[in-house]
Amino acid sequence: MFRRSMRFPSEGASAMGDQTVTETSAGYTATARVLHWITAILVLAQIVLGILIANKWTGAWQDQLYDLHKSNGAVLIPIILIRIFYRWGHPPPPLPPDIPAIQQFAAHTTHYLLYGLVVAQVFLGWIATASYPAPVPIYGLFNLPSIWPENRALSEQLLAIHKIVGIAIAIVAAMHIGAALFHHFVRKDRVLMRMING
After folding, report:
1. First CA to last CA distance, the chain
2. Cα-based torsion angle of the residue sequence 151, 156, 158, 160 in order, rounded to the nearest 10 degrees
3. Which of 86, 85, 94 lies closest to 26 in space, CA to CA?
4. Which residues of the chain register pLDDT less than 70?
5. What is the CATH number of the domain that holds 75?
6. What pLDDT is recorded for position 30?
């Protein structure tokens, strides 16, 4: 709770004070923050694993890391869907009002693009793996059911698309991270911190 000062500031100072209260008081809920950071960690791990696996830089660990990649992707399915539904019911706090409209539009577009790309990516990977056919293990505990009949040609096509979408996710994620760091170190506002501590 914010306490009002007993002093009577000037009109300009009051306006600035109200803006500061609005900007600093608006934060993400604990649930939104947990879902965000779990998603971020998994997506970044998937990007790294995808690069290592695609270039066959993992040697004897190739199969194990490929299974880990599939497991992470499978876990992302419910997490990203829960996060989307939660976001619908709990809209994010607005950006600071002094941010130009075009930048706010870019920020919202980046968010929606990331959601769409990640959802498409996990299902592309699942269908491509099932149609190969190959199992989708969940950290060695059990396998997801196959959701597509065997079709090696389709699998190869989907894996090619999967690679392109992965590159797109890496680019958009880099833009998102860069924007967050810009807000924190250049603008010095709370856009990044409200996702860390609310």
Report:
1. 14
2. 180
3. 94
4. 1-25
5. 1.20.950.20
6. 96
Under DSSP, the state recorded for 10 is -
Residue pair 165/117 in contact (Cβ under 8 Å)? The answer is: yes
Look at residue 52 and give its three-state secondary structure: helix
**R_g of the chain computed on alpha carbons:** 21
Domain count for the chain, please give it: 1
Which residues form the domain of 40? Answer: 30-196
Q: What is the CB neighbour count within 10 angstroms for residue 129?
A: 25
pLDDT at 3: 39
Which amino acid, 14? Answer: S
Residue type, 39: T
Pick from 128, 134, 129: nearest CA to 161: 128
In a domain, 2, yes or no: no
Three-state secondary-structure class, residue 2: coil
Exposed, middle or buried, 146 (CB in 10 Å: 0-12/13-18/19+)? middle
Give the pLDDT of residue 198: 84
pLDDT of amino acid 85: 96
